[in-house]
Design goal:
The chain is built from 2 helices and no strands. The protein is mostly helical.
Length: 55
């Protein structure tokens, strides 16, 4: 029975660690611009070939 108490405490500490990591990511600006990356692939120029074929 004491193992279940240990597992509850450890899982609570892991949850707090993930919450702290999420709050740190939000505070550092990781989620500021969530629109641009999703449309960037639609408007990027295709790379030109390095060697053009002669006509």
């Amino acid at each position: 029975m004491s193992a279940i108490y240990l597992l509850i405490v450890v899982s609570f500490l892991v949850a707090l660690a993930f919450l702290a990591a999420f709050l740190w990511a939000v505070k550092s600006g990781q989620y500021d611009d969530d629109y641009t990356p999703s449309i960037r692939m639609l408007f990027e120029n295709k790379p030109e070939p390095k060697h053009k074929k002669p006509d």
